[in-house]
Amino acid sequence: MIKAEGIHFKYEVQVILDDISVQFEKGYLYGILGPNGCGKTTFLKILSGLLRADHGHVVLDNLDINKLSISEIAKKVAVVPDATTPIFDFSVEEIVTMGRYIYVGRLTRENAEEKKIVREILRQFNLVELKDRSFNALSAGERQKVIIARAIAQQSKILLLDEPTSHLDINYQVELMEMLKKYVKNGLIVVAILHDLNLAGQYCNNVLLIRNGKIQAFGTPEMSLTRENIKLVYNVDVVVRKNPFTNSIYVTPISPRVIEANEGVSNNLIKRIHVVAGGGTSKELLPELRGNDVSVGIVNTLDDDYEFALELKYEIIAETPFSPISEKSQNELMQKLNQTDIVILVNVPFGKGNLENLKILENCIKPLIILEKTPIETRDFTEGMASEIYNRIKSKTNVKVVKSVPEIMNLIDGRSSV
Amino acid sequence: MNALKQVFQRILIFFLILALILSIFVGILIGSVSIEPQKIWGILLHEMGFPIQETWMEGERLIIISLRAPRALAAAIVGAMLGIAGVAAQGLFRNPIAEPYIIGISSAAGFGTALIVGFGLLFLGIFTIPIISFTFALIAVIIVYGLSQTRFRLSLSALLLSGIALSFFFSAATSFILYLSEDQTHNILSYLMGSFWGVSWIEVYIMFCVLIPSTIALFYYARDLNLIVFGDETAQTTGVKVEQSKKIILFIMTILASTSVAFCGSIGFVGLIIPHTMRLIVGSDHRKLIPIAAIGGGILLVWADVISRSLISPLEIPVGIFIALLGGPFFVYLVVKRKKGGNFV
Asked: What pTM was estimated for this model as a whole?
């Protein structure tokens, strides 16, 4: 267990860390995230005893780190720094052996037991074949593995890493994180500074988000890496979603252009428009509607249309994927239809999952534009039920059927009446 | 380290030791007065106490025992000292072009020597020059060290920069003395260039007594040096008491370099070339590099001395000049090799 209690750190007059208190437990992988200069590297250096906090303590197994000697700390905490470029060349095996520094006497050579430990670590890191190769001749990914292997050779309980995956190809990123995960399962505490929000979201048990030297959030990735927190810490707009396969979150930035386009449009032309979409069929239309008060739904959260709408910052009536539309969403849609000026139904394929949309539309009395690119029969997966309702809707008087997006835009702009 | 490579290395190291012993013998063999090898063997064995019939003249014995033997041994010892000090300097400063004189040792010692010789102040007899140059070297290191030690740590870059600044200062001061003392210029220069001319047994003993404990002490910190190459922070988090180790390594380097400068003048390039060349053979692990650099440095200087005194015999080229002439092109070779994609050993 390693604990930071009220850590303050100042560099000259600039406050780097301001009252950081956090506890890292056995068997967890922690990610430290934050923009450059937020103090995360300084924090890691304080945790490893390289820097002394101005106030506050780092507690290692109930002992104050400042009361421990360098070799006592090294037995408890191993560190992988952010960049390692030795000016002279060592072999892979020599470097991993260096991790045993504290265990080997000064004038003795490594005994059989020591050699066995090093060999085992080389094996765990798939470095056996590279053991005689010179470090400087390795690829960046292999080098990083060697450096982590040296830290593991220290056999400490805590491993601190400073951006271990930066400059690495994705295959090495995944390999390293999987490896760390394995050691975490065996009881190691791993604390890694990461710059990749998605890697953190996928692999970390807990994420510590630092902003201007203060803790912004500390908890599971879902709790820490929220849209609001990321906006506060990094000052970017993002979409945070859940990967349905791994159940981990992932973060996509939204380009600032999109946001600007949404702002700065005068209010008197704004119309309230609701789009019934699904299956990515609204991708042409949605950007055209920018500047209006647009809502979209009901779509499920894995739908492309959901993502488009989210990116455009439209309001969304959303439903979890692979489940029927809930009553709550149905009510929301009905309410929306009452408030809106214009309703648009795009060329949506219908299945049992989204049939409710049509049923509700049948009772809609607002001007309704139907974008029909392909006949309903070709996109009806409900054995005719959808077609039946669809055709009933088409025959209503408040409905206009069009074939293209420009036609819709003409109608909305009032150049022809709905 | 695979088995074959290990065997190869062991054989190589064995041959290097053999080569050092042979080199010293050759150093004793060659000189302006020619003496047969059997006589030399006889004299050497006789001196060691073996009952061998005297077939040589007393003059020959004196040449061998009082002139050539201490000279060859001094060359070997100074070579070893500079080789080891070079290894320490390059590891400590994490810099492939660092060498033991880099923090001002040789120029300060040179200034001390110039002062003494230039103004004829030999107040301590034959030991005036060694004592004064050693003192000046230490003063230089203390100044440089004082400038580089902050509250928490010894700044290596400050050490390098202030060392270079101090070197320029002392070099300029030495030039000024040379300029002032026209009649002594040649005399001063021959001291400054570095040579083993007229080395006595007592000097050999003193240097030997510095070399052996220094080597053992540095070897004691070999694994610290390995980790220091990776940076202070890596070294500390792996368990090295970095600040303490750095100071001790710096101290050992200073003692080795200052002693060699004190007795034999400033012999450059050995501390630069030997670590590089030996790294080619045994790799960068300081536990191997330190002993092998001692042997390599010894061989290099013994031969350099032999060649420099027999090339245009009876005239002697100061060995410092000879080594520099040799070292310049060699260093260019290393740079070119690096440019071609090889590692900088």
From this structure: 0.77
